[in-house]
Amino acid sequence: MMTRHDTTHPGTARFHVVLPTRSAAAPELPAFVTDVRPALTDPAGRSAVAADLAGLAGALVPFDPGGQESLTVAANVLRRTRHLRVVAGFHAAAATPVYAAKLSASLQRFAAGRLGWRLAVDLDPAAARAQGDFLTGPGRQARAGEFLTVAKGVWHGGPFDFRGDFYEVAAGGFGPPLSASPFPEVQLSGTSPEALALSRRHADVHVFAEGDDLDALVPELPGLRYGVHLSSLDHVLDHVEEYARRGVSEFFVPAEDVYHLGEHLKEQALAG
Fold it and tell me: What is the pTM of this model?
């Protein structure tokens, strides 16, 4: 049996598949034609099952303003898998931190604590306005910090009181069983001073993009785990050791590469 790549030991590569957030439209057929083929409406679920069977560590449902709602997709993926850790990307303005925490605490109960969060902070201004969010500049990181402070505060019980620039809670907090589940692992990104400061306060994992100056940025984020988005499987296999030497342990790859990556990991397990 292949060993799962789901360890948090430093220097160990953990692979995560980036799931699709949109489904293909059903083909238009003549009225007299009956299409008996299964509906291909769940590409994220199929990719996640393949990643789970291949022994990958996790899956990311990215925040997609024009796609399906990530926490809903994550709930479906958690239901369809047994071991995969599933991270839902969402925007801080999409819900109050209390509601997001309660929804996630409920999911954690039914998914053995496998849910994580990827908070989208630096949205393109046009995309943010389309979501009803007109906050700009460093205030976005300040709001995200308050969002995570409040979410963690109510999660771990009450009475919890908070008064900030963006949120206010009076005598809040969850009781058992909601408060018993682990808080979602928090993933953040960005290279601005404000983004790095937010990660130092709240992140478990800071995720970089290809081309970011890791030699300069990693020392700014002590004590965290580090991830990187790679554009193709070739980049994973060619550069994983180089990134690992810089402290990266989490690798995010496109969904279309999940089958090839699973075969690669199986070969590694059999060889080692």
Answer: 0.87
Per-residue pLDDT in tens (0 to 9) along the chain, 272 residues: 334 444 334 347 899 999 998 876 666 777 777 766 555 678 899 999 999 998 899 999 999 999 999 999 999 999 999 999 999 999 999 899 999 999 999 999 999 999 999 999 998 999 999 989 999 999 999 999 999 999 999 999 989 999 999 999 999 999 999 999 999 999 999 999 999 999 999 999 999 999 999 999 999 999 999 999 988 766 666 678 889 989 999 999 988 877 666 666 656 655 55
Interatomic CA distance for residues 89 and 120, integer angstroms: 6
| Inter-CA distances, 269 with 17, 61, 173, 257, Å | 19, 27, 45, 18
State the burial class of residue 248 (Cβ atoms within 10 Å of its Cβ: 0-12, 13-18, 19+): buried
